[in-house]
TrEMBL record:
This is Nicotinamide-nucleotide adenylyltransferase. It is an enzyme of class 2 (transferase). PANTHER family: BIFUNCTIONAL NMN ADENYLYLTRANSFERASE_NUDIX HYDROLASE, PHOSPHOPANTETHEINE ADENYLYLTRANSFERASE. It comes from Haloferax marinum. Its EC number is 2.7.7.1. Residues 172-183 have a biased composition (Polar residues). Residues 4-132 form the Cytidyltransferase-like domain. InterPro entries: Cyt_trans-like, NMN_Atrans_arc, Rossmann-like_a/b/a_fold. Residues 164-183 are annotated as: Disordered. One of its GO terms (cellular component) is cytoplasm. NCBIfam families: arch_NMN_Atrans, cyt_tran_rel, PRK01153.1.
Length: 183
């Protein structure tokens, strides 16, 4: 049986890793959907899909399960999202998620959905990991060693610190809230 688990993995952290470990005990193969694959270089999504694929592939290599990491770009039409995911992924029989919308969409499409307990959710969440990266606090203890290696290899800490930094003297009230414009 093949399972599917989607996440933004910004970055892939120990909570994701525990979830994959749990899923690996239930399925023969696992598809890891790299959500929001088209987004990068922003405070919420600092890493590219390719970088996140590297993180995931290196981190799950210790598990005795065949995995496929596939990029899944956002689609702003929830009613067709599951068919979009299925078109981008190897076929799967069961989806894993704790996200209420994702669960609802898969159920409506007739896909079995399984949930798992969250692991130390107060700390093991991407927002906390990214905030610690920005503030130069310990973040490495929250991710698998392989992920820390990838983040260092790609200059991820410098990137997230730069993209979250602002030069207040050059920002005017008219553009102060427009963080989406790269210029």
């Amino acid at each position: 049986m093949r399972g599917f688990y989607i996440g933004r993995f910004q970055p892939y952290h120990n909570g994701h890793h525990r979830m994959v470990e749990e899923i690996a005990s239930e399925v023969d193969e696992l598809v890891l959907g790299i959500g929001s694959a088209g987004d990068s270089h922003s405070p919420r999504n600092p890493f590219t899909a390719g970088e996140r694929i590297m993180m995931v592939n290196k981190a799950v290599s210790d598990f005795d399960i065949t995995t496929y990491a596939v990029p899944i770009e956002d689609l702003d039409r929830n009613s067709v999202w599951v068919s979009h995911v299925q078109s981008m992924s190897p076929a799967f029989e069961v989806a894993y998620s704790n996200n209420p919308l994702v669960i609802q969409l898969f159920k409506e499409a007739g896909v079995e959905v399984r949930q798992s307990p969250m692991f130390n959710r107060e700390v093991l969440e991407g927002t906390e990991v990214r905030q610690r990266m920005i503030e130069d606090r310990d973040w490495e203890s929250l991710v698998p060693d392989a992920v820390a290696d990838v983040v260092h290899e790609i200059g991820g800490i410098e990137r997230i610190q730069h993209i979250t930094d602002t030069d207040r003297s050059e920002r005017t009230p008219s553009n102060a809230s427009d963080d989406s414009n790269p210029c």
